[in-house]
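Researcher: For the annotation table, I need structure tokens for Peptidase M16 C-terminal domain-containing protein. Please keep the output clean. Sequence:
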Amino acid sequence: MDTYGYSYNNPNRMSLAALGNQSLDELQSFVIKSFKEVQNKKLKKSKYPSDPYGESKRKTICYHVPVNESRQLTINWVIPNHRELYYCKPESYLSHLIGHQGDGSLSSYLKTLRLTIELIAGENQWERVLYIVYQYLAMLRKEGPKEWIFNEGKNINQMEFQFEEKGQSRYIDQV
């Protein structure tokens, strides 16, 4: 490991995944041999601010001139830590609703108004698109979560997992 690695990464802050066509015993032996010299300094886990941007950096509009022709409106939000809600996946629920393209969806409405082709457009009337997006979010907040929507997302995820095609071994990077 380099200097940065020794300064910030320690076994108590790290995880390791190993993938190979060797037996589990062989993989384990290889990992132990390769990493036994890494000393555990028992550093405290890093604490990160719950709001890394602060109030002053929010509500910022950034304009840029793309190298290639691109007409795109991107909205980014700072979402509070919700690790304790990991199993109910609130971000997936919201993502499912915002990205949904069926009748009555945000995407469908913006397409009807000819403001978007996909849910990443809106060059000429971006302020109107933002207004509609935030009106939609306000409606979702007012109505609260719906069990049937949660179950729909859960069922889609289960089917994707169950019928997922076997991928490349690179998958381990994503774990």
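Researcher: And a one-line annotation?
Model: The chain has two domains: 3-35, 55-162.
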